[in-house]
Model the fold of this input.
Amino acid sequence: MTNGEKLHTISALVEDKPGVLTRVAGLFAARGFNIDSLAVGPTETPGLSRMTIVVNVETKPLEQVTKQLNKLINVIKILEHDPGTSVERELMLVKVRAAGEDRQRILEIASVFRVNVVDVTHHTITLEAAGKPEKLEALLELVADFGIVELSRTGRIALSRGDRGIRDRVLRAARTAGGEGA
Done:
């Protein structure tokens, strides 16, 4: 990361309609931002979806994009998660080569990380891991020595800590500009 860039996790509450994902991702692409992670799924409210977007950018240009996102007709609410005040998780499936003695060592690593073994063949073991992105990275580092056959990650999802939901919170940029705090 250079020039003051850092990872930002943003949640967007959006109407579940065709083209919303394209318009939201297009705003980031138009600014030349690469989306590190994007997860979209239904919410507790029928007709609404939650997008969790992780980008590695400077704060100032990100504030401009979030202002533009708020202007999109299908976007209900935008929230940037403050580090330490949100719960972030990710799901990963990783298929690892597991022949001979390596099989037991991989199972021991799986036990230490409290991950599930979801498939076993004569030559591979597939692990299902859920947790903080840092935990998944540490797991990958250990199993990489055995040989990763295949890997799939969902991307980060996040919720703010505490009693209030996204509809009760305001974007960090709005708070610093004299708006209400979360």
Q: What stands out?
A: Strands lie at 6-15, 35-42, 48-57, 75-81, 86-97, 116-120, 124-131, 148-153, 157-160. Confidence is low (pLDDT under 50) at residues 171-182. The longest strand covers residues 86-97.
